[in-house]
Amino acid sequence: MKTKEADFAYRLWRYDGAPGELIPLLQSAQDHFGYIPRRAIRYISGVTNTPESTVYGVITFYSQFRLQPMGKHQIRLCCGTACHVAGAPTLLDTLRDELGVEENGTTEDGLFTLFTVACLGCCSLAPAMMINDETYGKLAPGQVRRTIRKIRRQENKKAAMEEVGV
Amino acid sequence: MAKILVGMSTCGLSAGARDTYEELKKLLSDDSSHELTLTGCIGMCYREPLVEIRDNGTRTIYGDVDAGRAREIVDKHLANGTVIEDYAVYTEDASGRKGGAEEPFLTQQNRIVLRNCGVINPESIDEYTERGGYEATRRALTVMTPEQVVGEIKESGLRGRGGAGFPTGIKWSFAAGNDADQKYVVCNADEGDPGAFMDRSVLEGDPHAVLEGMIICGKAIGATFGYIYCRAEYPLAIARLEIAIEAARKKGYLGDDILGSGFDFDIKIKQGAGAFVCGEETALFASIEGERGMPRIRPPFPAEQGVWGKPTNNNNVETYANIPWIIVNGASAFRKYGTEKSPGTKVFALVGKIEKGGLAEVPMGTSIEELVFGIGGGIKDGGEFKPVQMGGPSGGCIPEHLKNTPVDFEHIPQTGAIMGSGGMVVLDATTCMVDIARFFLDFTQEESCGKCTCCRIGTKRMLETLERITTGEGNTEDIAHLQHLAQQIKQASLCGLGQTAPNPVLTTIDYYEDEYIAHISDKHCPAANCSALVSFNIDRDKCTGCTLCVRDCPVDAISGGKKQFHVIDQGKCVKCGKCITSCNFDAVYKA
């Protein structure tokens, strides 16, 4: 459930000039839009009286912030040390090949965005990845492909159902 | 009445604890004689999801509990009181006798920081106070003077658990000695080292201990406000902290006039936004202030000018979690654990090629061998021990012949590694040491904030050199070139990230120079890891003849029809690795 505090417009309106609110405002914008669109930068810049270039500088410094919309399913492949030695590089190759995109890329159909992350913190399940909030552990290339294809099939089915109006 | 606890930390949840919990909830919905609750991580990550049954003074912990086993536990254990021996990992009867398959994993530990993790419900402040929680706060605020608190922490010899090991009491006395209208307490929960997750576990399993540590620090240095800077990748930790802060405010442990002592203190959570360098304290302060997280020049030190230019004390999660225990039990009790110069215990994350991966808390000075082979159960699948990697991207590799090294702030730096936050990645013979060095450089190069030229460009040049070596294009001057660059980066970088970034390269050159030479001169990767230097082969026992790799190979190097064994023509193979990623049966291997 979205609280009032999490609402981007509310936070902008409530902003009282307290210092140090730039990053929370950006996080709230990203929660709201799924990424940080040009107009959000303009709003934040206006409200906080910070130059747009400075806001942009903060956005690009932190890896959490996105300037492009993300796919419906966000894949986070863990590339921590434990996952690396357990075969994460091969899984990355597999995902690149299966999705046809590079890291940080989104598939043409808008279904998947591929990210690599430093560590998911579930090292005993290495190699691991997350798709949205679901964690998949002890992976092998074949399993990665099957998982992606399964989601793709479900999405295609959903789209087809919507088309015929079910 | 039995109490059922399901381990619901991130590690448990990723292993499926949510399903287990839901199943138990469904099964027990019309049975009010049992209490179902959640708890933090007890450290046995390798047996998650874990379910504990407490009944008439007995404890039984079951491992690998999926929905099916949950049903079995309800049918057998809860209904008839029969312990299911097959997957009871730890048992304790009413007289305190312990047993179970994984009993040594727990009984070989000394749990101070993890005293409540996996024992209490982290979302319940009452369970925390029942275990003696907030007693330390009461003492520090109503009985002791700030000088006495600082004195006790100094006396305990506690050293910062974030990596550098600076004595906590002395740090506090610096901040206490500086007069200002406002001071701050900062808790560094930006645990960024890949392979280390003890801070997350404490935040998820025992958040009040950290809050208490901060309140006591506030009293000791005269600060009335605290920030917890937690990485955004830990949503559950943030959620549990929020619950804990709210509960502490309601009970009067946070806010104005705490426990009638006249002392005010409040805490705010600041979410990180994904930058490894923000673990460096001055960069962390910049990030709290809403700027790009770039380190600042010291001096002035944080004790003089930290957050918002005010005197600030910054410690990490594990350090704060030690504080309440020390205040209640006294400095001399703390000194009973560990060594003369590194007292107390340390939590280690045992990960990688290890049989029992998880969290273990042991006294400082325990040897690597005891940790890896005693508690950790040795190398996975009976493999050959190579080194342990300590300290993440700032640390180094400690080889097999130094496995008797005691783990403390004196001995680990002598090996070229650092204590770091306690991540211990165990590697085996299938790990290429040049590739590990390249892996960490890839990380630090990516995370360098760009302020210092030598770090920004130096790490890039080192990475390029390592990439050349791992793809078989290295030349004989490369090793000297790497060492030269490493010295320059170490000397000329402003913050810890740059000063330690070359460590993984330097230690691997020190201990495994022959592997570098094999890559450079013989164009051979001894661990059969670096794709350009190995041959791809198909295991005849695993190949089912499905023709998937035959069809996928971009250069038609694989032959064999349906239901025939496939063979790779080494003359044609371009070593792209496509066949490994397309095989469903793990039949393709590098040699």
Reconstruct the topology from this structure.
The complex is a heterodimer of chains A (166) and B (591).
Chain A: H1 8-14, H2 22-33, H3 38-48, H4 52-61, E1 73-78, H5 81-85, H6 88-99, E2 112-117, E3 129-131, E4 134-136, H7 141-163
Parallel strand pairs in A: 1-2
Antiparallel strand pairs in A: 1-3, 3-4
Helix pairs in contact in A: 2-3, 6-7
Chain B: E1 3-7, H1 10-14, H2 17-27, E2 35-39, E3 51-55, E4 58-62, H3 67-80, E5 88-92, E6 98-99, H4 103-107, H5 125-130, H6 135-143, H7 146-156, H8 168-177, E7 184-189, H9 198-205, H10 207-221, E8 225-230, H11 235-250, E9 266-271, H12 281-288, E10 312-316, H13 317-329, H14 331-335, E11 345-352, E12 358-363, H15 368-375, E13 385-390, E14 396-398, H16 411-414, E15 423-428, H17 433-447, H18 453-470, H19 478-492, H20 496-500, H21 503-520, E16 536-538, H22 548-552, E17 558-559, E18 567-568, H23 578-582, E19 588-590
Parallel strand pairs in B: 1-2, 7-8, 7-10, 8-9, 11-15
Antiparallel strand pairs in B: 1-3, 3-4, 4-5, 5-6, 11-12, 13-14, 13-15, 16-19, 17-18
- Under CATH, the homologous superfamily of the largest domain in chain A reads Glutaredoxin
Major pleated sheet of chain A: 4 strands, mixed
Q: How many distinct beta strands of chain A? A: 4
Shape-level CATH architecture of the largest domain in chain B: 3-Layer(aba) Sandwich
Helix content of chain B: 25-40%
Oligomeric state: heterodimer
Q: How would you characterize the overall build of this protein?
A:
The complex is a heterodimer of chains A (166) and B (591). Chain A has 166 residues and is of the alpha+beta class. Chain A is 48% helix and 11% strand. Chain A has 2 domains: 4-61; 76-163, Glutaredoxin (3-Layer(aba) Sandwich). Chain A has 7 helices and 4 strands, in the order ααααβααβββα. Chain A has a 4-stranded mixed beta sheet, covered by helices on one side. In chain A, a hairpin with a 2-residue loop joins strand 3 (129-131) and strand 4. With 591 residues, chain B is α/β, with parallel strands linked by helices. Chain B folds into 5 domains: 3-107, Glutaredoxin (3-Layer(aba) Sandwich); 125-334, NADH-ubiquinone oxidoreductase 51kDa subunit (Rossmann fold, 3-Layer(aba) Sandwich); 345-428, Ubiquitin-like (UB roll) (Roll); 433-520, de novo design (two linked rop proteins); 535-590, 2-Layer Sandwich (Alpha-Beta Plaits). In chain B, the strands form 5 sheets. Chain B has a 6-stranded mixed beta sheet, covered by helices on one side. Chain B has a 5-stranded mixed beta sheet with strand order 12-11-15-13-14, sandwiched between helices. Chain B has a 4-stranded parallel beta sheet with strand order 9-8-7-10, with helices on both faces. Chains A and B meet through helix 2, helix 4, helix 5, helix 6 and helix 7 of A and helix 1, strand 11, strand 15, helix 17 and helix 23 of B.
